[in-house]
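Tokens as discussed.
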């Protein structure tokens, strides 16, 4: 059993807003999203374990920030972990004293409770997950996706529910032996007259081991708990979705998710934006989140998260559809040895260097564009190996940063 960091990073809108209201977002390595319906964000965990170290990062945007509470939700009820965000503050907020026990079959997600109409620019909601056996991360692709005719589509393992009929922009190199298991899909509505299938892809080949076939007119939660995919180091993985020949009736789903299990204490943080990508113009330095939705900021603190475990980070990976520059892992505001030159379209990986971190270290990515061209990133991530026993619980605390009265450009 080794604790794994599950990074839920960044929202499509950049903020939670529109309160007073309660919004829901999945628990796992995924993007943040503000859904009103909890069932659209709940994921069934089939591996028993313990969640700990609830971590929330609020960016300093120079705007008025609404007071809010972030909670773990288990089986549709509040869990033990919770953090409160005072009005007009930013920074890191943590619950390091409570934990939530996860039984096989529990549904998990987060609730973000806003007390008023102002924004809350949450950039990350993370937890540690310690599986009872081995090391497991729940990777989740989330968002509302609707199809009403026959298509074959591809999606990334984690991040937004972006889909395209072209596969390369969604592949992620897993870098270690392991297994994918417990494929999960949540279908919101379905009026199709034929089946829709959800499967995993390994090295560009559709797996027959993990398969969900959603029957015509069926909706709700669907799982494959019997199959699994055996992964070797450097396998490329993603999802594939195929609808039948009927034209007109539509299916809408919000989640595709799977568990990635290893026996060597290794796991991944993945960020994606596979359809359009995120374009950074030439001759700029920008900072990116470790996982979730790919986005950038000129202010590094907007995306710095605590490692919350002692770990070795390796295999910095990025897929770009264009551009030249350099991607680098940052630790405590400084560049590390984990870096890779980007020289055009394709996949790039630093498979040589490694960086050690401790629980309190702040980590993020930096991309520096060079020359006259821009860089468009589609998938990025890294592999972490837990190198220590789970740290002892500490007291809940917050590290507020009062909002600067000057709007940062």
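Sequence:
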């Amino acid at each position: 059993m080794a604790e794994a960091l599950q990074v839920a990073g960044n929202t499509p809108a950049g903020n939670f807003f529109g309160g007073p209201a309660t919004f829901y977002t999945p628990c796992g390595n995924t993007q943040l999203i503000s859904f009103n319906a909890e069932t659209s964000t709940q994921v069934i965990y089939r591996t028993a374990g313990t969640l700990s170290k609830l971590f929330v990062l609020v960016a300093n945007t120079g705007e008025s920030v609404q007071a809010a509470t972030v909670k773990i939700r288990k089986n549709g009820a509040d869990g033990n972990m919770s953090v409160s965000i005072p009005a007009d503050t930013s920074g890191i907020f943590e619950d390091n004293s409570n934990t939530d026990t996860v039984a096989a079959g529990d549904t998990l997600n987060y609730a973000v409770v806003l007390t008023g109409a102002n924004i809350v620019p949450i950039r990350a909601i993370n937890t540690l997950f310690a599986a009872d056996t081995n090391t497991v991360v729940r990777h989740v692709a989330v968002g509302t996706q609707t199809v009403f005719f026959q298509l074959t589509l591809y999606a990334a393992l984690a991040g937004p529910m972006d889909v395209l009929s072209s596969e390369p922009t969604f592949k992620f190199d897993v870098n270690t032996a392991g297994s994918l298991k417990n494929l999960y899909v949540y279908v919101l509505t379905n009026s199709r007259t034929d089946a829709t299938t959800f499967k995993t892809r390994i090295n560009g080949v559709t797996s027959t081991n993990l398969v969900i076939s959603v029957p015509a007119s069926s909706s709700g939660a669907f799982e494959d708990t019997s199959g699994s995919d055996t992964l070797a180091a450097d396998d490329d993985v993603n999802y594939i979705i195929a609808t039948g020949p009927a034209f007109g009736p539509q299916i809408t789903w919000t989640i595709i998710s799977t568990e990635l299990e290893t026996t060597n204490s290794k796991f991944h943080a993945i960020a994606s934006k596979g359809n359009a990508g995120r374009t950074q113009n030439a001759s700029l330095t920008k900072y990116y989140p470790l996982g979730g939705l790919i986005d950038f900021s000129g202010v590094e603190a907007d995306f710095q998260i605590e490692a919350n475990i002692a770990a070795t980070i390796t295999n910095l990976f990025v897929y770009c559809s264009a551009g030249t520059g350099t991607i680098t892992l940052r630790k405590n505001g400084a560049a590390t040895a984990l870096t890779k030159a980007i020289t055009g379209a394709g996949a790039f990986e630093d498979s040589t260097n490694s960086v050690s971190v401790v629980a309190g270290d702040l980590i993020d990515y930096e991309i520096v564009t060079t020359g006259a061209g821009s860089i468009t990133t589609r998938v990025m991530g890294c592999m972490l190996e837990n190198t220590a026993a789970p740290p002892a619980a500490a007291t809940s605390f917050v590290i507020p940063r009062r909002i600067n009265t000057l709007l940062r450009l």
